[in-house]
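Tokens help. Consider this.
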Amino acid sequence: MFAIDGIKLASNASKERSGTHEELRHRADRLEQAATKILTLHQAQDKQGSEQTLEPKRQARIDALRKEAARTREFLATAPKRLNRKGQELKTNITNPESAKMATSKGVIQGYAAQAAVDSANQIIIAADVIGSGSEQAMLLPMIE
């Protein structure tokens, strides 16, 4: 007898940095808009005669938003779209492109699906695989083979 079981493993990747290319492009646009809004508010203060310079904390936030937007745009320019077997685009992750968002009993995680097949007579693992997909069903037939 052979036993097959699977588990979902969390990756060290941010769920917020996941999406289709269109969703990630939209996120980069929103990050740029947020940075521009902060800068525009400060410029309005300047025009009113405020002598205050841009606070280091505010400047750091602008820089962080723009850096994240640039990182997202660079990823989009270099990473191909991930497609499922039906040709539909899968969500990808900027931090860890091989991982996937998947539902668990404790909520949604960014991670991997892992499966192992065990020989009960000898009590050894005869096959193991890890994929960055939320669907463990796709792993079953290759694991059986």
Remarks:
- The two ends are 14 Å apart (CA to CA).
- DSSP finds three helices and eight strands in the chain.
- Residues 21-47 form the longest helix (27 residues).
- The CA atoms of residues 28 and 70 lie 7 Å apart.
